[in-house]
Amino acid sequence: MTQPSTAGALYLSREIESAIRSAIDQAQTILCVSHISPDGDAIGSLLGMGWILRHLDKHPTLALADKPAADFDYIPGFGAIVGASGVGDDYDLIICLDASSQDRMGAVYRPAAHGQIPLLVIDHHVTNTNFGSLNWVEPGCAAVCQMLVYLADALGAPLTGDLAVALLTGLITDTLCFRTSNTNAHVLQAAMRLTDGGAQIQEIVARTLQSRTYAGLRLWGSILGHTALQERVIWATISLAQRKQVCARDGDGEGLAGFLVSVKEADIGATFTERVQNGGRVVVECSFRAKPGFDVSQVALVYGGGGHPPAAGCTLTGPLDAVAAQVVAALQEAHRVQVSDGKQAAFGNGAHG
């Protein structure tokens, strides 16, 4: 078994570690949540935090506002995740993982009921608004699951078995299997320790990055025939009608923005997806990807979202085509500014997830 690395000290200060330890020590009932439209890092960090807390003899409730994709049901503890209806009002501590702002928690966080409960935020998005009573925000980490490797070390939870599977899932999905530019030696070292603890890279990749439904394949075919490219921004819209026509499920368009930005003539890729939220409200989920040297996070932030320079997003209301036109114009303007400021990398670099 590999020993804890010294990298944890770079990302988890003694002050933050002490504050987190104190908050957890003083709590028994703990609500753990992540963001709406949960991805692999959201689900992996949520379940991973649950295993860490159980190791400490705590009683966590794991909740997501949106139903997690069944693709992740191999992670131990997946079946214990509850929706908003399974969340009570009385907890000693709330831990929010991988969400850059309070609204990203969705319906599982009710300010009227939960506003007075200590809120620990653990996140790696540079756009995080520090909305917790205690915030550990580390943009230098490639995934929140990487952060939890260091927290597990600090709290004495072994990186084996169920915990290892959960955390490696987040590392793999957020780095597209270690292909993004924020993949460094510390990321690879964390992954090595998790594989040494029993997690299987090949199995996780097969279940997440290399798994697609037939309906999803048909949806992509429908979308790719109607993409648009202008001023080095490429984009596509995905309507409810398109999804219904091929019986596509939520998540079947996942990864399309990253695929679009691989086009040589583009530096920024975007998808705009109509989706029905809990309660029946129709929204447009906007997903942005950029090649190295370009930053889409600030556009996401303007529209109430967030993320990282190469990968960000937001959720808006309004007609699909109108939302797409407005946001694409903002992305094109951001691209022009970044080019004129000389902040861009050479055109034609590989896609960044």
- Quick one: CATH class of the largest domain? Alpha Beta
| Largest sheet report | 6 strands, mixed
Structural class: alpha/beta
Percent strand equals 15-25%
Q: How many distinct folded domains?
A: 2
Structure description:
This protein is of the alpha/beta class and 353 residues long. The chain has two domains: 8-207, inorganic pyrophosphatase (n-terminal core), CATH 3.90.1640; 214-340, Diaminopimelate Epimerase, Chain A, domain 1 (Roll), CATH 3.10.310. It contains 13 helices and eleven strands. It has helices spanning 8-11, 14-25, 40-55, 111-114, 144-155, 161-174, 185-196, 201-207, 214-224, 240-245, 256-260, 297-302, 320-340, and strands spanning 29-33, 59-63, 93-97, 119-123, 134-137, 228-230, 233-238, 268-276, 282-290, 306-308, 311-316. It has a six-stranded mixed β-sheet with strand order 6-7-8-9-11-10. Strands 2-1-3-4-5 form a five-stranded parallel β-sheet, with helices on one face. β10 (306-308) and β11 (311-316) form a beta hairpin. α3 (40-55) runs parallel beside α5 (144-155). The two termini are 31 Å apart.
